[in-house]
Amino acid sequence: MVYQTEDEILRIVRTFENGTISRSKWRHAEHLTVAFYYAFYHDFETAYVKMRDGIFNLLNSFEVDLSKEMPYHETLTVFWMRTIFDFLESQKEKSLVETANKVLEMCGDKDLPLKYYSRDFLFSDEARKSFVEGDLG
Predict the structure, then answer these.
(1) Boundaries of domain holding 25
(2) Mean pLDDT of each 10-residue bin along the chain, 137 residues long
(3) What is this structure's pTM?
(4) Is 136 domain-assigned?
């Protein structure tokens, strides 16, 4: 996915925020786009809360029974937000579109967290429920 305009980015953010993006279209790139957008315009805490709360809102709109299924993953949310914020430190003068495309390129591999976490630890109940630091150094 490569963005040409800010409107393309805003469309994804809006459909995320109002819960109208379809479950089949809510993939890794869309997660990154929304996280990046929040990071571009907000401090870490605000961006993180908007992302976390938005994911729960979206799961609600997907009619996920959170008492039976928990697709939300706290450690992955914090990991990607931190990764994006760290990257943005070097991109201060770039446009929204240019930076979004670079974030997608840099973070496109959804297995990136496995450089820092063993699979069993990353997908443990503990890591899903609350943020844990990586166990691989």
Answers:
(1) 6-110
(2) 94 96 93 97 97 93 75 91 93 86 93 96 93 91
(3) 0.91
(4) no
What's the rounded Cα separation, in Å, for the pair 84 and 100?
10
Is residue 18 classed as helix, strand or coil in its secondary structure?
coil
73 in a domain, yes or no? yes
- The type of residue at 93 is E
1 within domain boundaries = no
What is the tally of structural domains in the chain?
1
Q: Is 116 part of a structural domain of the chain?
A: no
Q: Of all helices (H) and strands (E), which one includes residue 15?
A: helix 6-17
Amino acid identity for residue 84 in this structure: I
**Cα separation of 81 and 62, whole Å?**
23
Question: DSSP code of 135?
Answer: S
* Interatomic CA distance for residues 104 and 27, integer angstroms: 12
Q: What token pair was written down for 120?
A: 């069993």
Task: Count the neighbouring beta carbons within 10 Å of the beta carbon of residue 38.
Answer: 23
